[in-house]
Amino acid sequence: MPTRLLKLKFPALISLYFLVLFSSIHSNASEQFSEILKLKQSAAEKNLARQLTWSRLLYFREGAKQSDLIDAGYFFHLEGNKDKQKELFASIEAYFSPWTDKPDEHPICKFPGRYFWLNKQLELPDFENLLEKKCKRIHVWGFQEKTQSVSLMLVSGYLGNPASSFGHSFLKLNLNESSIHTSLFDKSLNYGAAVPPNESIVRYVVLGITGGYRGRFTGEYFFTQDRVYSRTEFRDMWEYELKLDEEQLRFLTLHLWDITGREFQYFFFDRNCAFRIAQLVELVSDSDLSADPRPWYLPETLFQNLDMSQTNLIKEISFVPSSQRELYAQLESLNNQELEIIERIHKTKSLEDEVWGSIAELDADRQIDVLDALLAYHKYLLIASGNKQDDFMRQLEQKILITRLALPAKPRQQGSIDELISPAKGNKASVIGLAGFHNRDESGSLVNIAAYKKDFTNKNSLEGNELVLLDFTFRDSELYTALEHVDLIKASNIKPSSSYLSSERKWAWQINLGAERDVLEEDYVAYFKASMGKSFYVANNLFIYGLVGPQLNHVEPVADATLKTGFVYLHPQFTFSGFNEQYWSEDGGHYKLAEGNISYFLKKDINVFLKLRDIEITEAQAGLSFYF
Amino acid sequence: MFKKSLIALAFAAPVLFSQQGFAERDLGQIYSECGLGGIIAKNTQDESTAKVLAIVTNVTWDFGTTAVISEASSPDSCARGSAAVAAFIYQSYDALEKDIASGHGEHLATLKELNQSGEGFETSLRSEFAKQVASADYSEKTHFEKTEDLFNLVTAIN
What we know:
The complex is a heterodimer of chains A (628) and B (158). Chain A is α+β, with helices and mostly antiparallel strands. Chain A has 18 helices and 19 strands. In chain A, strands 8-9-10-11-12-13-14-15-16-17-18-19 form a twelve-stranded antiparallel barrel. In chain A, helix 1 packs antiparallel against helix 3 and helix 5 packs across helix 11. The mean pLDDT of chain A is 89. By secondary structure, chain B is mainly alpha-helical. Helix content of chain B is 53%, strand content 0%.
């Protein structure tokens, strides 16, 4: 081609190239714009922004004007945490964001759960293909493919930590790994507050109640939870395996990718672990688990709601005993002589042959069982002492291991472990009681209202121990109508250990902060009482206890010494308890209170009781309690 | 050689573990690939222990969203296999010790599967562990050191 012609044609060719390119881009942009418009129109027609699932995806509680999420990164629109419609449209637009060299930063890869649901409603273009081919990290994580089922875990209450008294709950993904078949590597998801280390108790309480902490979901392997709850805090667990279909499972696991690490405001009483776990399950199952008319939400409420849910989500409930319970069952398999060996080693702190030699005198099979139990007990003592190892404990551990490893392998022996029913199957925590009373001077009625009441008279996971909060009793009679008594907090840990080792018989204790009406003075006396002592089983399900301690009053006499002796008989159907409490005040006064109580559950949440009370005069009370 | 500072990674309890044999990479590689060098715990005297504690207490592999991963040069390949095993041993040492002593138990079974070992694993492990336990300084070792020893022992068995 002649050079002059080439010179004329070249600019034209370049111009043509850019014209085609521009047209192509413009055409793509137009197409995309049309697509977005179409999707928005469809979303508007289907009223998706008002749908419950959309609200739940954005963590708007019912009736709330704002999302519970305080993490701005969860929303595409600046007002997305307040305006569900704007967030919906912004989500649709974000779907079409250009892909960069960091594909895992694309909205589809960051919020696969959100887009999974939107795809079901709107048929987003090429969603499954993009999720599969473009998003790398989620596939490396792989839990949406590996999850076989989901379980909700209920952890029993723990009086050793006030924040754990009401129990705990977390979610577990039961994985179908081809290489690992034990549950220890299942994935657990916890919701909790980010509490700085060494936080003072006052700040902890105040910030926990008032929303001063950030809360978020975090993931760990189940062996971490097992170590903390079962093996360190010695708490039982109940596993509720859920009945979710494949689509629900996929939606849930994809949404976990959306939400893990995102920040909420943490409130100890209501927007806590159980509440957030309830919201996760509600999202995928169309159930209503997070509802509770009370201003708090307990872990067991989640499981009670699950039980009552119309959607029938429970596949199976399994009891997971604590390591302490397993240890006690292991000790149960030993005879008295063998138990005595274990106790003697720890009491004498001797590794000499005269003590240790008793093991060698047993036949080989029994040696194995004793050594296994001794090692288990040793580990238990270490944990219970906060891992304080002195020289004896270190040397003992080595000696046990050397001796045991020289003997053949054999599965550890243990007695049977009674399967405890889930606390959620027991009665609910709040109560209203109505009773009539009669004594030689008057008759009348009593009304009892308690925000949280787990005591001897009801079925609860504290197994004969007590935790009572905000318990009010009002009295109406010919003589007066008034608040008779209030327990702001009452906690008892008096049930004896079921271990066969005498060294496991711990101190029993009781604390009580409250106020009562002084009938003579027609005034109230506020008090704080703390006592300690011992308790023992005297027969099956029957134990006795004795406690001593001071009571401090806000009026004269300021201090009393108290002695309380009592018994508790815990039958599956009824409870029979009684106590005698003596007070010696600093001004020389002495008085006593005696009480006997029998209560029977007519139905799960309705209890009938009969009480005889003797303080100055004897009074009989009979009534009904309704738990809710 | 199991460097003390490198066990820091192990305690991150990584989310993922590989189907490959878990001793396939040097822990030094894992440590640097996972970008853990910048995390130092405060209030500890020994820097290598501080690193370990920092990882144990600060890093949770939250479905791949933890900030640490963003520092990783190879986030998707870090925290596989070896690291998960080491974390498991560290956190479950007491339970593992009981299982190894008796030759049975869920923790031992898990370790066997992680190691992709066949028959004879428990017997070999018991035998080697017995030698470790019989050493003169065993009772003086820290939890960390015992974990390190057991990890090395397990990785040597196959």
